[in-house]
Amino acid sequence: MATRNRSFADYLTAWTRLMQSIEENQPILPDLTFLTMTLQGLINELTVITARQDAHRAGMQADTQRLNELMVRGRDTVLQLRGVIVSHLGPRNPKLAEFRVRPLGKPRALPQVTPDPVEAPAA
User: Fold this and answer.
1) Which residues contact 106 (CB under 8 A, 6 or more apart)?
2) Looking at CB atoms within 10 Å, which of 13, 20, 58, 80 has the fewest?
3) Quick check: helix, strand or coil at residue 57?
4) Where are the domains of the chain?
5) What is the pLDDT of residues 9-59, one digit of tens each?
């Protein structure tokens, strides 16, 4: 991720985009069913609780606490998903950009070291 997420809406947008990228690239990825279902459930619950917060402001402390717990679990799940994707595709694959993961650049060439010429002993 190039920029820091600052609000629930930013997280939901980023997570939804990640889910869409995973769905579009399903044939080239390993089985991510468990993690994607977990993240989808978290997204759904976040959406419901956010709507509930908007509908009534009373009793918001419990909902806010639950939202914070869900955010931690969501960040962990996204981290796991991206880790599996990087592991599967490789850290230098340009396809990683679709999952909001920065691919590593080309490996740097090692400097050429020429051995010092060995002087022949004087006879």
Assistant:
1) 92
2) 58
3) coil
4) 11-20+34-99
5) 899 999 999 999 999 999 999 999 999 999 999 999 999 988 888 777 666
